[in-house]
Amino acid sequence: MKFIKELIPYLVIILVVITIRTFIVTPIVVQGESMVPTLDGGEVMILKKYDTNYERFDIVVVNKSVEGDNLIKRVIGLPGETIRYRNNTLYINDKVLEDVYAYGDTGNFQEITLGEDEYFLMGDNRAISLDSRALGIIKKQEIEGTVGIVLFPFNKFGSVE
After folding, report:
1. From CA 18, how far away is CA 39, in angstroms rounded?
2. Residue among 117, 122, 121, 120 at smallest CA distance from 140
């Protein structure tokens, strides 16, 4: 009986850690160069799973495994919007929107109208990013949460936009 009483605090700690990582926050590693210059491959960030109100230009993690990695992309189009790119210019509902995060040329693509709970995501490094242009629209339930804090490397520690 004494052995079980000694184990209880450790079991509680394990349950708390599992609960936090499953429902609240968890570390995630940036893979590849699709978010350069904002994020570099190998950076460790905190994924906020509780943050489900996605806004334009938020950086999100998508539960869509490509070559074994989750995707980290930026929200460009929101539910109900019409998105298109022409001559490196972003149009949302036929209005020009400055896309300050785009790095490299963004090729033209067909106009896309998003439905309810649908998002259009793109990587910042537009020339090489595998994103909604190739994968299609992303449903809200496919988004795991937002990222915004770099933990490692320590010289980049802090929030990121």
Report:
1. 27
2. 117
Residues acting as catalytic residues: 34, 73
Please state which CATH number belongs to domain 27-151: 2.10.109.10
Does residue 83 sit in helix, strand or coil?
A: strand
Beta strands in 34-156 (DSSP E): 44-48, 59-66, 69-77, 82-86, 89-92, 95-97, 109-113, 118-122, 138-139, 143-152
Would you list the domain boundaries of the chain? 27-151
Give Dmax (Cα) for the chain.
Answer: 73
Q: How do residues 58-111 score in pLDDT, each as one tens digit?
A: 999 998 765 567 789 999 999 999 999 988 889 999 999 988 899 888 888 889
Given a contact cutoff of 8 angstroms between Cβ atoms, the answer to whether 73 and 34 are in contact is yes
pLDDT exceeds 90 at position 52:
no
Please, which residues have CB within 8 angstroms of residue 31's CB and are 6 or more apart in sequence? 41, 69, 70, 72
Closest CA to 55 of 146, 129, 142, 141: 146
